Backbone:
């Protein structure tokens, strides 16, 4: 049985709740992941032998994987009855199964980086310029227009309403921009491609146009749980509303209005109130904090109570941890920013190695972090930046990814170019694209087979490479056995000598990426427990997942506050606590009670509540040559300078 004895009273009530839709207001360090996984496990345990499923939606693959692992530990035989996934991955599954209704085939490709999106938008603009009915301004370039197209997609603006909406907003060149938007969406359909914002937009469009699909989802998923609900944008909320209504009684939502820090991505403090209004949810609070020392909780409570519009009756955090060292909170001011980061680097360097690796440096901006990271490396301490990585960097993984994409999408010229580039870096054999394209056109073959024919003609081909491309690839081409071929190609890469490659950087990051590939592969397999994962499902999940390697054991994380959300560290250094940096200049300009200032305050609240043992706050009188005042957030925490 799932053991609930270790849960506190509020946690246990949430896990066992059966009286309708529930909103759990869970503060940082309150054990919300434990509550979610125990609730899922409890429902599965109590319904053994039944066929309904549970849908649990979150925002990162990492969070989904962690929850999946915990559920598997609690009820190992029932994992196949749970779909623990992200909003984007759920949208992708809907479009795989039912996208044919809106002209998408199941094997659609996901454009996971802006370079591919801009390339498609460039094609759109090129075709429009050939159309004499339109006269595009010179400044209409893909890089400049993509953010506007993205905003329209994120708001799910229908093609036939885009012009009117843009004109009402007094947008310059509204007619032309609406045409670009329409043609971009049509280009996605004609190329059977989707990007991140269109995944959500097209899924919403699908569910809106075909209500029978909504009924089917409700029938399959009897319970719907949402983690980090405060991060939802409007379209994600609309999708949730569609699949929950008309009976939201089994909706279970975990949120914290004090941790809304993604307003730039569509999150809105009003969305939690909309949840109350639309679904009449009962509310339960988890104010107990098991992570932070009492003094840090005291600072956090003093800071966040300044914010307006918090949930009525929101309880302050309650520290469960007892006992703390004298230096649990330290505050230091410096004459210059250079002195500040030099001191942080030296202070971390003075720690014992076992203590040092549990430190993290946080800041509001990447610019500050890059300076701090350089200073840490100067004193011999490796650093780790948590930047999302959408594509593999090493040539072997790029080659593998391109081959799999070409098998899935037989006319993918971009993947053909990537394959040829990676192959040249590894083998020094240049395969020009024009003869491959000509051969494919003349022989009626797909691009990959034509490329292989061109490669096999080369006498300089190494025997083991010839075996890979003539023999080992057959199972992939005939039966789509990507598992076998992936192993063969990676084994071939391991046996290859980096010194003998054409490009000395071809194997950069290969070892890390090989482990990342296997880790992602394992997670995808676990996610689709009991189901055969097709090649296009594998590729779509790969495109939705960051290829960022895990942090090396001895490296110090240097994270923006957004990147640190959901994490915890023994020793936190929060730097750059000055006006115009934190809070930002833009928030100060908007005013002390503005939405922007309140979000900055929530950013600070999130940062300090990452702390498990000690918190160090630093600021400087001069940053990049400009005089600065200490951040107002220090005073709001009750810090006397």
Residues:
């Amino acid at each position: 049985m799932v053991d609930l004895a270790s849960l506190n009273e509020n946690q246990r009530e949430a896990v066992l709740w059966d009286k309708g839709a529930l909103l759990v207001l869970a503060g940082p360090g309150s054990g919300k992941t434990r509550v979610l996984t125990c609730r899922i496990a409890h429902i599965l345990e109590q319904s053994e032998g039944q066929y309904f499923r549970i849908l649990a939606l979150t925002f990162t693959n990492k969070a989904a994987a962690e929850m999946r692992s915990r559920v598997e530990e609690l009820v190992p035989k029932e994992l196949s009855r749970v779909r623990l996934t992200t909003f984007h991955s759920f949208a992708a599954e809907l479009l795989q199964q039912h996208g044919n209704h809106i002209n998408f085939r199941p094997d659609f490709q996901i454009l996971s980086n802006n370079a591919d999106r801009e390339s498609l938008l460039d094609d759109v603009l090129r075709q429009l310029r050939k159309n004499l009915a339109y006269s595009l301004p010179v400044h209409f370039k893909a890089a400049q227009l993509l953010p506007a197209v993205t905003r329209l997609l994120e708001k799910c603006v229908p093609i036939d309403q885009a012009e009117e909406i843009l004109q009402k907003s007094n947008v310059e060149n509204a007619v032309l921009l609406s045409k670009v938007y329409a043609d971009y969406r049509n280009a996605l359909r004609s190329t059977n491609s989707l990007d991140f914002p269109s995944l959500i937009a097209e899924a919403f469009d699908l569910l809106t146009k075909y209500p029978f699909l909504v009924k089917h989802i409700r029938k399959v998923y009897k319970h719907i749980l949402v983690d980090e609900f405060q991060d939802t944008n409007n379209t994600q909320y609309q999708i949730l509303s569609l699949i929950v209504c008309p009976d939201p009684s089994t909706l279970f939502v975990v949120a914290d209005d004090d941790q809304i820090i993604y307003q730039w991505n569509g999150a809105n403090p009003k969305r939690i109130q909309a949840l109350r209004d639309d679904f009449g949810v009962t509310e339960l609070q988890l104010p107990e904090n098991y992570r932070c020392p009492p003094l840090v909780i005291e600072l956090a409570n003093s800071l966040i109570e300044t914010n307006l519009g918090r949930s009525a009756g929101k309880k302050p955090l309650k520290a469960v941890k007892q006992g703390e060292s004298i230096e649990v909170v330290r505050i230091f001011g410096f004459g210059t920013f250079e002195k500040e980061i030099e001191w942080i680097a030296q202070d971390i360097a003075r720690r014992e190695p076992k203590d040092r690796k549990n430190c993290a440096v946080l800041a509001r901006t990447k610019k500050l972090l890059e300076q701090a990271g350089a200073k840490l490396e100067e004193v011999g301490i490796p650093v780790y930046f948590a930047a999302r990585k959408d594509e593999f960097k090493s040539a072997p993984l790029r080659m593998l990814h391109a081959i799999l994409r070409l098998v899935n999408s037989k006319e993918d010229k971009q993947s053909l170019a990537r394959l040829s580039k990676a192959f040249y870096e590894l083998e020094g054999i240049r395969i020009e694209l024009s003869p491959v394209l000509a051969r494919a056109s003349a022989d009626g073959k797909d691009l990959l087979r034509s490329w292989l024919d061109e490669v096999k003609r080369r006498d300089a081909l190494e025997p083991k490479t010839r075996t890979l491309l003539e023999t080992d690839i057959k199972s992939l081409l005939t039966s789509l056995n990507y598992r076998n071929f992936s192993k063969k190609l990676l084994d071939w890469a391991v046996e290859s000598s980096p010194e003998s490659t054409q490009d000395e950087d071809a194997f950069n990051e290969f070892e890390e990426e090989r482990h990342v590939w296997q880790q992602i592969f394992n997670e995808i397999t676990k996610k689709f427990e009991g189901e055969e994962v097709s090649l296009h499902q594998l590729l779509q999940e790969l495109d939705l997942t960051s290829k960022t390697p895990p942090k090396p054991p001895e490296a110090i994380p240097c994270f923006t506050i957004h990147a640190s959300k959901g994490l915890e560290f023994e020793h936190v250094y929060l730097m750059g606590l000055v006006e115009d940096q934190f809070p930002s200049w833009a928030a100060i300009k908007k005013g002390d009670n503005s939405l922007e200032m309140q979000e900055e305050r929530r950013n600070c609240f999130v940062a300090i509540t990452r702390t498990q043992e000690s918190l160090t706050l630093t600021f400087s009188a001069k940053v990049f040559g400009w005089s600065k005042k200490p951040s107002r957030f220090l005073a709001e925490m009750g810090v006397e300078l």
